Amino acid sequence: MLTIDNLTNEIDGKAILKGLSLSIKAGEIHAIMGPNGAGKSTLAYTLGGRPGYQVTGGTASFNGVNLFSLDPHERAAAGLFLGFQYPVEIPGVSNLQFLRESLNSQRKARGEEPLSGGEFIKLAKEKAALLGLDMEMLKRPVNVGFSGGEKKRAEMVQMGILDPKLAILDETDSGLDIDALKIVGAGINAIMRRPDKAVLLITHYQRLLDYVKPDYVHVLAGGRIVKSGGPELALELEREGYAEVVAA
């Protein structure tokens, strides 16, 4: 589904990713862990197409298509979803309005018919229920006045409605208490743990991986993946930290 080969990039002339390679197949969940400044969020933003993240070498193929040949909205319509560490607020725009416009814009780009108002509300109720989010909250402006946990749950509702093929989740566990972490973890599993979908989880801590079991765990340091393994690698990192792995 996603194949990254020797990817390099820079921000404001500073090299961040320095030859990163990674392959994710449909049906797999991969977790990327690593110290601060390793390039984890940079990888997510580069794949998502955020301006300012300049690719200087290497390739990334998404379902056989050159990812970097697509604009950000084209990547989204192709089935890529990027979850942010700090979801933004959009005053004056309700969640329901934002989500319906987003979904129908993607459907139009794929040559599909838009959902009617009734069809969309039914879908939104279903996905909100997965995340324990009251429909009244979806009537409020996007993320305005939401707690950190509510923002992440609302973002997972967005993911459920857009139904992507690949979800790149950048520190989705950030700011979540234990109860919210369980709900968000269950939501990710319900929406994305399917044979035709894949997930790239970016996290500092092992705790999210108690609820969303990865198939593979990778350590990113100095702009490269320096070690890969199974779920046990995350437990090792939680016990021993990154110093020994990074120095190896």
TrEMBL record:
Keyword vocabulary terms for this entry: ATP-binding, Nucleotide-binding
Record has ATP-binding as a keyword: yes
Family matches, as Pfam families: ABC_tran
InterPro entries from the UniProt entry: ABC_transporter-like_ATP-bd (IPR003439), FeS-cluster_ATPase_SufC (IPR010230), P-loop_NTPase (IPR027417)
Domain ABC transporter span(s) in chain numbering: 2-247
TM regions (residue ranges): none
Top-level lineage group: Bacteria
SUPFAM superfamilies: P-loop containing nucleoside triphosphate hydrolases
Gene Ontology terms for molecular function: ATP binding; ATP hydrolysis activity
CDD domains: ABC_FeS_Assembly
PANTHER family: ABC TRANSPORTER I FAMILY MEMBER 6, CHLOROPLASTIC (PTHR43204:SF1)
NCBIfam families: sufC
Family note: Belongs to the ABC transporter superfamily. Ycf16 family.
Descriptive protein name: Fe-S cluster assembly ATPase SufC
Source species of the chain: Sphingobium indicum
